[in-house]
Write a structure and sequence with these properties.
Number of strands: 20
Order of helices and strands: EHEHEEEEEHHEHEEEEEEEEHHEEEEHH
Largest sheet: 6 strands, mixed
Distance between the termini: 18 Å
Strand content: 25-35%
Structural class: alpha+beta
Radius of gyration: 20 Å
Shape: globular
Length: 357
């Protein structure tokens, strides 16, 4: 098993690809089984050509990727500038099954009474699934329901990946899968066979107030929490915070959605944290960058640099303590609310991963 990573910051897409290909071939000559590609939104118009050139020169069995507001490679996080980063893997004996799901297919594939439809789509007919690598469009992917469905299909196999970023509305993100490209839904790869995939989730947020039940919601809009207008509930929660905590709300307010409802209590790692995008004063509604439904349990969260740093170091340290063997490679997916928006110096998350792993 072998991996190689490369990054190019050349604004000319063809020259950027040439740099990437030369670097991968120098580090890892020979076949490429999996190629993960991440490119900033500056390359959106050239994304199809970039993927085609990478497929031509590196001939991966599976190519998966997406656009993002920033990209990460090694100990560097590139924000607000053009960059492309790729990770190439040689995985002998490992089965890679690519899949794509469009916005119009969710209702059919997430039908709890017909799980075989999703099982066939993601190639999970056998029981040797090790992980699902997925990349989605945040505006058209019901990620909580999708993750729960994958967990039911393959218990114990983690779903890893992230959402495309840098888009302001549906149709602006790009998802890459082999020689195809889409602007909605999700692309993914089922990973099976002789490989181990370990994961950690460091949200960098801490809960405030109490857990709440969503009692009325539509798409990404929450109308009521506990039977009361969502905006009024948010205001009551924030007014009860200490003054330092209220100052942290200026960095953004977040809502954690419980991933597994069948637990006696909820703690670190139990929430899928999403940004609160705004509110409608007249209707008392709050909006998230995530679809949500009535019956889900949520809790407001706030984020600060110290908590985020401590949480990431704790999670990485705990993972290394459980298995001190060095990892062969890592994919790091970071929130666009982190980086220099959160930390006083650049490259924080990438640097901590390099330091501990």
């Amino acid at each position: 098993m072998q991996f190689a990573a490369a990054m190019s910051r050349h604004e000319d897409s063809q020259k950027a690809v040439a740099q990437l290909v030369a670097s991968i071939q120098r580090q890892m000559p020979g076949p490429v089984h999996l190629l993960a590609v991440f490119l900033t939104t500056e390359y959106r118009e050239d994304a199809t050509e970039i993927a085609a050139l990478l497929r031509y020169h590196l001939a991966p069995d599976v190519l998966i990727g997406c656009t993002g507001e920033g990209v990460i490679s090694g100990d560097k996080e590139i924000e607000g500038e053009p960059a492309i980063t790729i990770l190439a893997g040689r995985l002998p004996g490992v089965a890679l099954t690519p899949f794509a799901i469009g916005i119009e297919e969710w209702e059919d594939l997430l039908d709890e009474n017909a799980p075989e439809r999703l099982r066939r789509r993601v190639g999970a007919a056998r029981g040797d699934t090790r992980a699902f690598l997925t990349l989605g469009d945040p505006f058209t992917t019901p990620i909580v329901e999708f993750m729960a469905a994958l967990d039911a299909l393959a218990p114990g196999a983690p779903t890893v990946g992230g959402m495309a970023s840098g888009a302001q509305t549906a149709g602006q993100s790009l998802l890459l899968l082999d020689d195809g490209m889409r602007e909605d839904g999700v692309v993914g790869v089922r990973i099976a066979g002789p490989v181990r995939v370990d994961t950690i989730v460091s949200q960098g947020c801490r809960p405030v107030g109490e857990t709440l039940l969503v009692t009325r919601a539509e798409n990404n809009l929450i109308h009521t929490l506990g039977g009361k207008p969502a905006l009024d509930t948010a205001r009551r929660t924030l007014s009860a915070l200490s003054e330092p905590e209220q100052e942290l709300v200026q960095n953004g307010l977040f809502l954690g959605i419980v991933i597994n409802e069948y637990q006696p209590a909820f703690g670190r790692g139990d929430f899928l944290v999403r940004s609160v995008l705004g509110a409608d004063e007249a209707a008392g509604v709050i909006a998230l960058n995530e679809t949500i439904r009535a019956g889900q349990t949520v809790q407001f969260h706030i984020r600060d640099a110290q908590t985020a740093d401590e949480d990431l170091r704790h999670m990485l340290g705990e993972q290394r303590a459980n298995d001190p063997r060095p990892s062969q490679a890592a994919l790091l997916f970071s929130c666009n609310g982190r980086g220099t928006r959160l930390f006083p110096t650049p490259n924080h998350d990438a640097g901590v991963v390099q330091e501990i792993c």
